[in-house]
Amino acid sequence: MSPENYLHLAALLFTIGACGVLVRRNAIVVFMCVELMLNAGNLALVAFSRMHGNLDGQIMAFFVMVVAAAEVVVGLAIIVMLYRSRHSASVDDASLMKL
Amino acid sequence: MESLIGLLLAPPLLGAAVLLLGGRRLDRVGHWIGTALAATSFAVAVVLFADLLGRDAGDRTLTQHLYSWIPVGGFQADIAFRLDQLSMTFVLLITSVGTLIHLYSVGYMEHDERRRRFFGYLNLFLAAMLLLVLADNYLLLYVGWEGVGLASFLLIGFWQHKPSAATAAKKAFVVNRVGDIGLAIAILVMFTTFGTFAFGEVLPAAAEGGATETTMTLIGLMLLLAACGKSAQVPLQSWLGDAMEGPTPVSALIHAATMVTAGVYLIVRSGAIFEAAPDAQTAVIVVGAVTLIFGAIVGCAKDDIKKALAGSTMSQIGYMMLAAGLGPIGFVFAIMHLVTHGFFKAGLFLGAGSVMHGMNDEVDMRRYGGLRRYMPVTFVTFGLGYLAIIGFPYLSGFFSKDEIIYAAFGRGGAQGWILGGVTLLGAGLTAYYMTRIMILTFFGEKRWQPDAAGNEPHPHESPRTMTIPMIVLAVGSVFAGFLFNLNHAFVDWLSPVTGIAEGDSPVSHLTVSIAATTVMLIGVAIAWLQYGRRPVPDHAPTGRWVTRAARRDLLQDDFNHAAFVLPGNYLTRGLVYVDHKLVDGVVNGTAAAFGGLSGRLRRVQNGYARSYAVSMFGGAALLIAVTLLMRAV
Amino acid sequence: MSTLTALAAETTTSGGEAAQFWILAPIAVAGGLGTVLMRRAVHSALCLAGTMIILALFYLANGAYFLGVVQIVVYTGAVMMLFLFVLMLVGVSAADSLKETLKGQRLLAAACGLGLGILLIAGIGQASVGSFTGLAEANANGNVQGLASLLFTRYVVAFEVTGVLLTIAAVGATLLTHRERIERNKSQREQAEERVRSGEQLPPLPAPGVYARHNAVDIPGLLPDGRPSDLSVNPTLRERGQVREVHEQALADLAAIERRTAEYQGRAVTVTPPRRAGDAAPADTTTGAGDERAHDAERAERDNGRDNGPDAAGEEARR
Predict the structure, then answer these.
(1) What is the ipTM score, two decimals?
(2) Which residues in chain A belong to E strands, given as ranges?
(3) How far is A26 from chain B (nearest CA, A)?
C-alpha cells in the first residue's frame, strides 16, 4: 500500500467535488460539494502525515476541519438569509451582477 | 474736403442699420428715411464734385485715411478712401440713380408689407457699392465687392416665398463666389508680389514693370474672372437672367446700372496691371466681344421683358468690357458708356417695372401690346431710353457706343477690323431686340389675357413717385451723351486718371457714325418687318434651333450642368462611395470588431456565480499545469 | 479497532490495508458521485455522510485516530445535521432539478474537472512520493497527546486564532439569521382584515380525501360538483408533484350515488355528471406545471359558488 493510492483517491474526490460545485444549482448541494473537496484535502494531509512520520499534517487537517465548520455555519446562515429574501436556494437566482 | 468722403458712405450705412434693426415701428416711414438718406449721400457727392471741379486737373485725387485696419508688420490694411475722377463718376452715378430708384420703389413696393426691409437692403447696397468704388486698396474693395454681392443676394431673393426667387438668389450668390475667388487670388498674388495692395502703390509698381509678365497675366486673368462674375460676362453670365426674379427696382439699380458695372470699374481701375499683361488684355477683349454678341442674341429671343432687358444689359456691359480691354484707347469710353447705360438702362427697367405694375405683374411681352395709349408717360420715357440705347443720333447711346466702335477699329490691323465688325453687328442686334421690345409692348393690338386668378388687367399709368424718376432718367438718357461730348468734357475729366490714347483707326469718326446708324436702321427695319407688320402670335412659335437655344440662354445652364454640376455630382458620389465603403468601412469595421469582441467577452460576465467558478477552476487547472511544466523543464 | 491500530502502526502497509482500501475507496467515490448526481438534496447529504464516514475510516487506518473520531463526531454528526436542518428549512424547490440552465456550463465543468483530475494525478505521479514512514514514533505517547503537544506549543497562535474565528463565525451566523422587527406584530384581527381585503381564501381550505372515498392526504377532496380540488392537498406535496389522482371510477361512483339518492328521495337529479377539473382547464394535477391554472379555475369556481352554491349556504351557516 503506497501513499499514492490515498493521494489518487483524494484527487478523485476533489475533482468530483469541484465538478459538483460547478454543476449543481442548489446552494446547499454546492456547499456539500465544497465539503467534499475539503475532506479530500484532509485525506491527502493525513496521508502525508503518515508518509513523513510526523503529526503536522494531522494538525493541518484539524485546522481545516475547524475552519470548515466555521465556514459551514456562516455559509448556511447566508443561504437561509438568501432563501428568506428570494424564496429560492438557487445560486443562479443570486445573479444581480448580471447585465 | 477730404473728411466729406466718409460722409458719402455714412448715410446709407446708417439707413441700413436703422431700417434693418429698427423693427416694425419704422414700417410707416422707413421708405422715406431710406430715400432721404440716399438723397443726402447724393447731395454730399454733388458738393464733392463741385470741389473737384474747382481744382486743377492734376490735383483731383482726394484721400481719406480713417484708421489702420490690420497693421501687422509689413502687412498694412487701411480703411482709407480715395476719391478721384473715376470714383467721383461712379459716386455720382450710384447716388443719383440710387436716389431716383429709391423714390421709384416708394411707389413700386407700396403694397409690399416688407417694404422697410427692402429699403434697408437698398441702403445697404448703396453703402457697399460706394465702399467698392471709394476704396483706396484692393482689400477694402473686396469688402465692398462682397457687400454688394450680399445685397444683391438679399434683393434677388427678396420675394423669398417664391421658390424661383430663392433659387435665383442662390444661383447668383454661388456664381458670384466663383468670381470672388478670382479676386481673392488676384489680391493674394498682388500682396506676395508687391507686398501691398494699396492702389497708390500697386498700380505704379505694375506700370514700372515691378513684376514679371507671367505674374501680371495671372493677376490680370484673376481680376478678369472676378469681373466676369460680378458683371455677368461669359462664362459666368448665367445668373443675370435669373436675377430678374427680384423686384424691378433692384433689376434697374443693381442688375443694370451699378453693381454689374463693378467689373468694368475693376478693370479700368487696374488698367496699369492690364497694360503690363497684354495677354490678359486680349482675354478681356475676347470676353467682352463674346458677351456682347451672346447677350444680344439672348435678348432677341426672350419674351419676358425683364429677361430681354437683362440680355441687353449683358450685351452692353460686353461693350464696356471690350472697350476696357482696349486699354487707354477705350478706358474713357468704357466709363462713358457705363454712365450713359446706367441712365438709359435704369430708365428702361423702370419703364418695364411700370408696365408690369399696370399689368398685374405680367412679364410676357406677347401679352402686352398697344400700351402706348394707356401709359403715355411710361411710353415716352421708355421710348427715349429706347432711342438712347439703339444709338439714335445725338442721344447719349449714340456718342458712347460710336466711340467704342471707333476705339475697336482703333485696335488696328485684322483685330481692329474683327472687333469693329463685332461691335457694329452688336449695334444692329441692339437695334433689333430693342425695337422688338418696343413694338411688342407699346404698339400693335391688345393681347392682354386674364391671369391665372382670372383678373383682367387694367393698364394704368403709375403713380407720381414712379413716373418722376423715369422722367429724370429719360432726360439723362437724352442729354448725358451730348453733355459729355461737349468740348470733350468727359474725356478731359477722366483722362488724368485712366490715361487716353489715340488708336490707329483705319476709318474716320464720321464713317463709323454713318455705319453704326445704318446698321441700327437695318436692325430696326428687320424688327418692324417681323413684328410691326404682322400680328404677333400669343404663344411663341417654335422657331429655329438658334431661337430655341437663345430662349434657353444659349444653353448656358445646360453647359454649366454638363461641365460642372454633373462631374461634381459624380465626384461627390465617388467620394461618398469611398467614404462609405473605405473610410467608414475601416472605422466601422474596427468598431464592429471591437463591438463583437466585447459582446462575446460580455457574455462571460453573465452574473452567474457558477460561471465564475468555472473560470476559477479553469484558472486553477492552468496554474497547476504551468507549475508542472515549469518543474518538468 | 485494535486491528486498525495495529495496521496503522506498522511502517509498511499490509495486505489487509490494501484490501480495506480497495473495498472502501470505490464506495467513497460512489458516495462522492452520489453527492453530485442525486436529484434531491437530502440524498446528496446522505451520500456525503457516507463518504465522510469512509474517510474517517481511512483516517483511522492512517494513524490519525483523533481526526477519525472528530470526523465522525463533528462532520458527520454536527455539520451534516446542520445541513439537513437547513434543507428542512429551505425545502424543495426547482433548484433541485438537474436540468442545466447555463449554456455550455456542463461541458466547461466537465472539461475543467477532467483537466484538474488529470493534472492532479499527473502531479502526484511526477512527485517522488516514496513510501510511508509510519507514525509509530510520533504516536508513541498516543495520538491525542502527540497532537496536543504540537497544538499547544508550535501551533498555539494558530489555535487561538482559530478559536477567534469560530467565535466570529458563531456571532456572524447569529447576526445574519437574526431578523430585527422594525414594526409591531400584526394582531389576529388585522391579519384577518388584510386577508379579506386581499380577497384570498377566506374559509378554511377544503380537507383532502373528503368525498373522494379516501382518507389519504395526497388525494384531493372533491368539490360539491364532483371535481377534485387541488387546494385541499398540502402545498408541499403539490410543489413536489406528489398529488395522487382521484380515480375515474370513484368519480363515476359518486355520481351514481348522488343519482340513486335523488331517485330514492324522488327529487330531480340536480347533480351534473362529474367532470374532471381538467375539462374546464386542461391541467394535469400530478405535475406542478398546471397547478397555477388549476388554482385559478378553482378560485373562479369558488367565487361563482359563493352566490348560490352549497358553499354559500355553508358559509352562511358558519356565520
Answers:
(1) 0.92
(2) none
(3) 11
Strands C228-229 vs C221-222: parallel, antiparallel or unpaired: antiparallel
Question: Please, what are the averages of pLDDT over each run of 10 residues along chain C (319 residues)?
Answer: 49 73 93 90 91 94 91 90 87 64 83 88 81 82 89 92 92 85 84 83 73 68 74 76 73 79 75 48 40 46 43 41
Average pLDDT, stretch B64-88? 85
pLDDT digits (tens, 9 = 90+) for B586-605: 998 999 999 999 888 877 77
Of C155, C177, C199, the position where a domain reaches its end is: C177
Q: How far is Cα of residue C52 from the mean position of the Cα atoms in its chain?
A: 19
Which DSSP state fits B364? B
List of chain C residues whose C-beta atoms are within 8 Å of the C-beta of residue B625: 115, 119
**Is there a domain that residue C40 lies in?**
yes
User: Looking at chain B, how many residues does it have?
Assistant: 633
**CA A30, CA A24: separation in Å to the nearest integer?**
6
| pLDDT at residue A99 greater than cutoff 70 | no
- Which residue is listed with cell 443561504? A79
In total, how many domains does chain C have? 2
- Mean pLDDT computed over every residue of chain A: 88
- Judged by average pLDDT, the poorest of B190-199, B208-217, C152-161, C280-289 is C280-289
DSSP B591-618: HHHHHHHHHHHHHH--S-HHHHHHHHHH
Cis amide prior to B235 (ω within 30 degrees): yes
- Give the per-residue pLDDT at B579: 87
Instruction: Assign residue C99 a region (left: φ > 0; alpha: ψ between -120 and 50; beta: otherwise).
Output: beta
The B residues from 550 to 609 touching C (CB cutoff 8 Å) are 606, 608
Same domain? For C11 and C85 the reply is yes
Instruction: Quote the Cα angle for B30-B35-B39, to 5°.
Output: 150
Q: Which residue ranges form the domains of chain A, and what is each CATH number? A: 3-86 (1.10.287.3510)
Q: A-chain residues within 8 Å CB-CB of C113?
A: 15-16, 18-19, 22
The rounded distance, in Å, linking the Cα atoms of B414 and B402 is 19
Quick one: pLDDT band at residue A98, thresholds 50, 70, 90? Answer: low
Residue B589 has φ and ψ, to the nearest 5°, of -60, -45
Question: Do β-strands B62-72 and B75-83 pair in parallel, antiparallel, or remain unpaired?
Answer: antiparallel
Quick check: A16 contacting C, CB < 8 Å?
Answer: yes
- Residue B82 near residue B8 (C-beta atoms within 8 A): no
C-alpha to C-alpha distance for C58 and C20, rounded to whole angstroms: 9
Give the model's pLDDT for residue B608: 81
Place of cell 439537513: C84
CATH number of the structural domain spanning residue C14? 1.20.120.1200
Instruction: State how far the Cα of B172 lies from the Cα of B237, in Å rounded to an integer.
Output: 9
Q: What residue type is B20 in one-letter code? A: L
Count other Cβ atoms within 10 Å, centred on residue B16. Answer: 23
Neighbours of chain A (3+ CB pairs under 8 A): B, C
Range of the domain at C10: 1-90+133-140
| pTM score, whole prediction | 0.61
Q: Which of B92-96, B316-320, B620-624 has the lowest mean pLDDT?
A: B620-624
Report whether pLDDT(B6) > 80: yes
Helix (H) or strand (E) holding B186: helix B163-194
DSSP H or E segment with residue C272:
none
At B324, is the pLDDT very low, low, confident or very high (cuts 50, 70, 90)? Answer: very high
Distance CA A19, CA C116 (A): 10
Q: Which residues of B touch A98 (CB under 8 A)?
A: 605-608
CA distance to A42, A43, A66, C67, C114, per residue, from C57 (Å) = 13, 10, 19, 10, 27
How far is the alpha carbon of C242 from chain B, nearest alpha carbon, in Å?
30
Task: Please report the pLDDT score of residue B13 as a whole number.
Answer: 92
